[in-house]
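**Sequence with structure:**
===
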Amino acid sequence: MLGHHYTRTFLETAIASLNAGCNLELSYGMRNNVFMHIPQALVMGNITLQMLRDRVRPLFYTRMRLGEFDPPAMNPYSALDLSTVQSPEHRNLSLEAAVKSFVLLKNVRGTLPLRARDLPGKRLAVVGPFADSPWVLFGDYAPVPEPRYIYTPRRGLERLPANVSFAAGCREPWCQQYSRAEVVGAAGAADVVVVCLGTGTDVETEAKDRRDLSLPGHQLELLQDAVQ
Protein backbone atom coordinates (compact mmCIF):
# COMPACT_ATOMS: atom_id res chain seq x y z
CA MET A 1 0.00 0.00 0.00
CA LEU A 2 3.00 2.27 0.35
CA GLY A 3 3.47 2.15 -3.40
CA HIS A 4 -0.12 3.32 -3.89
CA HIS A 5 0.38 6.09 -1.29
CA TYR A 6 -2.50 4.78 0.80
CA THR A 7 -0.23 4.65 3.85
CA ARG A 8 3.10 6.20 4.68
CA THR A 9 4.74 3.60 6.94
CA PHE A 10 4.75 -0.15 7.54
CA LEU A 11 3.11 0.50 10.90
CA GLU A 12 0.19 2.31 9.28
CA THR A 13 -0.04 -0.46 6.70
CA ALA A 14 -0.17 -3.16 9.37
CA ILE A 15 -2.94 -1.34 11.22
CA ALA A 16 -4.99 -0.71 8.07
CA SER A 17 -4.56 -4.29 6.87
CA LEU A 18 -5.60 -5.92 10.13
CA ASN A 19 -8.58 -3.63 10.51
CA ALA A 20 -9.63 -4.51 6.96
CA GLY A 21 -9.51 -8.23 7.78
CA CYS A 22 -6.20 -9.17 6.18
CA ASN A 23 -4.39 -11.91 8.10
CA LEU A 24 -1.62 -13.02 5.74
CA GLU A 25 1.36 -11.14 4.35
CA LEU A 26 3.33 -12.51 1.42
CA SER A 27 6.76 -11.24 2.39
CA TYR A 28 9.07 -14.19 1.81
CA GLY A 29 12.69 -13.16 2.19
CA MET A 30 11.90 -9.78 3.77
CA ARG A 31 13.67 -9.29 7.09
CA ASN A 32 11.57 -6.24 8.01
CA ASN A 33 8.06 -6.86 6.76
CA VAL A 34 4.79 -5.11 7.45
CA PHE A 35 3.32 -7.51 9.99
CA MET A 36 6.46 -7.32 12.16
CA HIS A 37 4.93 -4.04 13.32
CA ILE A 38 1.82 -5.71 14.78
CA PRO A 39 3.23 -5.78 18.35
CA GLN A 40 3.78 -2.02 18.19
CA ALA A 41 0.25 -1.49 16.88
CA LEU A 42 -1.06 -3.62 19.76
CA VAL A 43 0.87 -1.61 22.36
CA MET A 44 -0.37 1.65 20.86
CA GLY A 45 -3.95 0.45 21.02
CA ASN A 46 -4.58 0.65 17.29
CA ILE A 47 -5.61 -3.00 17.30
CA THR A 48 -6.93 -5.20 20.09
CA LEU A 49 -5.73 -8.57 21.31
CA GLN A 50 -9.12 -10.05 20.43
CA MET A 51 -8.81 -8.76 16.87
CA LEU A 52 -5.35 -10.33 16.62
CA ARG A 53 -6.71 -13.66 17.86
CA ASP A 54 -9.57 -13.47 15.36
CA ARG A 55 -7.11 -12.91 12.51
CA VAL A 56 -4.75 -15.70 13.57
CA ARG A 57 -7.41 -18.35 14.30
CA PRO A 58 -8.35 -19.21 10.66
CA LEU A 59 -4.70 -19.46 9.71
CA PHE A 60 -3.96 -22.11 12.31
CA TYR A 61 -7.28 -23.82 11.69
CA THR A 62 -6.33 -24.22 8.04
CA ARG A 63 -2.87 -25.50 8.94
CA MET A 64 -4.41 -28.02 11.32
CA ARG A 65 -6.80 -29.23 8.63
CA LEU A 66 -3.83 -29.64 6.29
CA GLY A 67 -2.13 -31.84 8.86
CA GLU A 68 0.90 -29.61 9.42
CA PHE A 69 0.92 -30.37 13.14
CA ASP A 70 0.26 -34.11 12.83
CA PRO A 71 3.05 -36.65 13.46
CA PRO A 72 4.67 -37.58 10.12
CA ALA A 73 3.45 -41.17 10.52
CA MET A 74 -0.14 -39.91 10.32
CA ASN A 75 0.44 -37.98 7.10
CA PRO A 76 0.44 -40.23 4.01
CA TYR A 77 2.08 -37.49 1.93
CA SER A 78 5.20 -37.38 4.12
CA ALA A 79 6.31 -40.74 2.70
CA LEU A 80 6.12 -39.62 -0.92
CA ASP A 81 9.39 -39.22 -2.81
CA LEU A 82 10.47 -38.89 -6.44
CA SER A 83 9.76 -42.56 -7.09
CA THR A 84 6.09 -41.68 -6.64
CA VAL A 85 6.07 -38.17 -8.09
CA GLN A 86 8.02 -39.26 -11.18
CA SER A 87 6.25 -42.59 -11.57
CA PRO A 88 5.10 -43.58 -15.09
CA GLU A 89 1.49 -42.91 -14.10
CA HIS A 90 2.25 -39.35 -12.98
CA ARG A 91 4.49 -38.62 -15.95
CA ASN A 92 1.84 -39.88 -18.36
CA LEU A 93 -0.75 -37.68 -16.68
CA SER A 94 1.59 -34.67 -16.99
CA LEU A 95 2.07 -35.48 -20.67
CA GLU A 96 -1.68 -35.69 -21.21
CA ALA A 97 -2.17 -32.32 -19.49
CA ALA A 98 0.54 -30.74 -21.64
CA VAL A 99 -0.91 -32.12 -24.87
CA LYS A 100 -4.42 -30.94 -24.01
CA SER A 101 -3.30 -27.45 -22.98
CA PHE A 102 -1.67 -26.48 -26.28
CA VAL A 103 -3.24 -23.46 -27.96
CA LEU A 104 -2.95 -23.42 -31.73
CA LEU A 105 -3.47 -19.89 -33.01
CA LYS A 106 -3.11 -20.50 -36.76
CA ASN A 107 -2.40 -23.88 -38.32
CA VAL A 108 -1.20 -22.77 -41.75
CA ARG A 109 -1.46 -25.53 -44.39
CA GLY A 110 -2.27 -28.09 -41.72
CA THR A 111 1.34 -28.21 -40.58
CA LEU A 112 0.42 -29.63 -37.19
CA PRO A 113 0.27 -32.10 -35.68
CA LEU A 114 3.63 -33.56 -36.65
CA ARG A 115 3.11 -37.30 -37.02
CA ALA A 116 5.93 -39.71 -36.25
CA ARG A 117 5.05 -41.83 -39.27
CA ASP A 118 5.72 -38.86 -41.59
CA LEU A 119 9.10 -37.92 -40.09
CA PRO A 120 11.60 -40.67 -41.01
CA GLY A 121 14.20 -39.14 -43.29
CA LYS A 122 12.97 -35.60 -42.64
CA ARG A 123 15.28 -32.85 -41.39
CA LEU A 124 13.93 -30.97 -38.38
CA ALA A 125 15.56 -27.82 -36.95
CA VAL A 126 14.76 -26.50 -33.49
CA VAL A 127 16.01 -22.93 -32.99
CA GLY A 128 15.82 -20.11 -30.48
CA PRO A 129 16.98 -19.29 -26.93
CA PHE A 130 14.16 -21.42 -25.44
CA ALA A 131 14.95 -24.50 -27.51
CA ASP A 132 17.39 -26.19 -25.14
CA SER A 133 17.55 -24.25 -21.88
CA PRO A 134 15.72 -25.99 -19.01
CA TRP A 135 15.76 -22.98 -16.69
CA VAL A 136 13.90 -20.55 -18.95
CA LEU A 137 10.89 -22.88 -19.17
CA PHE A 138 9.73 -22.06 -15.63
CA GLY A 139 7.94 -18.91 -14.59
CA ASP A 140 7.25 -17.22 -11.27
CA TYR A 141 6.10 -19.44 -8.40
CA ALA A 142 7.44 -22.58 -10.08
CA PRO A 143 8.91 -25.44 -8.05
CA VAL A 144 12.65 -26.03 -7.96
CA PRO A 145 13.15 -28.04 -11.14
CA GLU A 146 14.98 -31.35 -11.37
CA PRO A 147 17.06 -31.04 -14.57
CA ARG A 148 17.02 -34.79 -15.28
CA TYR A 149 13.23 -34.70 -15.54
CA ILE A 150 13.00 -31.61 -17.74
CA TYR A 151 12.42 -32.14 -21.43
CA THR A 152 13.36 -29.08 -23.43
CA PRO A 153 11.88 -28.79 -26.93
CA ARG A 154 15.18 -30.01 -28.35
CA ARG A 155 15.38 -32.99 -26.03
CA GLY A 156 11.78 -33.94 -26.73
CA LEU A 157 12.03 -33.56 -30.51
CA GLU A 158 15.21 -35.63 -30.63
CA ARG A 159 13.11 -38.60 -29.56
CA LEU A 160 11.27 -38.46 -32.88
CA PRO A 161 12.42 -40.51 -35.89
CA ALA A 162 13.91 -37.47 -37.63
CA ASN A 163 17.29 -35.85 -38.21
CA VAL A 164 17.18 -33.04 -35.64
CA SER A 165 19.55 -30.07 -35.70
CA PHE A 166 19.75 -27.25 -33.17
CA ALA A 167 20.71 -23.57 -33.19
CA ALA A 168 20.09 -21.27 -30.23
CA GLY A 169 20.88 -18.07 -32.10
CA CYS A 170 21.27 -16.37 -28.75
CA ARG A 171 22.00 -17.91 -25.37
CA GLU A 172 19.61 -16.05 -23.09
CA PRO A 173 16.10 -14.57 -23.33
CA TRP A 174 17.27 -10.97 -23.69
CA CYS A 175 18.93 -12.10 -26.94
CA GLN A 176 21.41 -9.23 -27.06
CA GLN A 177 24.09 -11.20 -28.91
CA TYR A 178 22.47 -12.82 -31.95
CA SER A 179 24.11 -15.18 -34.47
CA ARG A 180 22.05 -14.92 -37.63
CA ALA A 181 24.29 -17.29 -39.54
CA GLU A 182 23.72 -20.01 -36.97
CA VAL A 183 19.93 -19.80 -37.28
CA VAL A 184 19.86 -19.39 -41.06
CA GLY A 185 22.18 -22.35 -41.47
CA ALA A 186 20.00 -24.66 -39.40
CA ALA A 187 16.66 -23.44 -40.74
CA GLY A 188 17.76 -23.34 -44.35
CA ALA A 189 18.75 -27.01 -44.34
CA ALA A 190 15.55 -28.24 -42.65
CA ASP A 191 12.21 -29.52 -43.87
CA VAL A 192 10.51 -28.45 -40.63
CA VAL A 193 11.59 -25.60 -38.33
CA VAL A 194 10.44 -25.23 -34.72
CA VAL A 195 11.18 -21.76 -33.32
CA CYS A 196 11.24 -21.43 -29.51
CA LEU A 197 10.96 -17.86 -28.22
CA GLY A 198 9.63 -16.10 -25.12
CA THR A 199 10.56 -14.08 -22.08
CA GLY A 200 11.26 -16.08 -18.92
CA THR A 201 11.93 -14.74 -15.45
CA ASP A 202 15.11 -12.98 -16.59
CA VAL A 203 12.92 -10.60 -18.57
CA GLU A 204 9.73 -10.30 -16.54
CA THR A 205 8.31 -11.53 -13.25
CA GLU A 206 5.94 -10.23 -10.64
CA ALA A 207 6.96 -6.63 -9.86
CA LYS A 208 9.21 -6.62 -12.95
CA ASP A 209 6.87 -5.71 -15.75
CA ARG A 210 7.51 -4.53 -19.28
CA ARG A 211 5.95 -1.63 -21.16
CA ASP A 212 4.97 -3.70 -24.21
CA LEU A 213 4.56 -7.28 -25.43
CA SER A 214 7.34 -7.17 -28.01
CA LEU A 215 9.80 -10.03 -28.16
CA PRO A 216 12.97 -8.99 -26.30
CA GLY A 217 16.26 -8.24 -28.00
CA HIS A 218 16.82 -9.84 -31.39
CA GLN A 219 14.15 -12.51 -30.96
CA LEU A 220 11.83 -11.04 -33.60
CA GLU A 221 14.74 -10.86 -36.02
CA LEU A 222 15.54 -14.49 -35.22
CA LEU A 223 11.94 -15.47 -36.02
CA GLN A 224 11.97 -13.55 -39.29
CA ASP A 225 15.26 -15.15 -40.33
CA ALA A 226 13.91 -18.62 -39.54
CA VAL A 227 10.74 -17.97 -41.57
CA GLN A 228 12.63 -16.59 -44.56
Q: What stands out?
A: The first strand starts at residue 123 and ends at 127. The mean pLDDT is 91. Helices lie at 10-20, 38-44, 49-65, 82-85, 88-100, 153-157, 180-188, 219-227. Residues 136 and 200 are 5 Å apart (CA to CA).
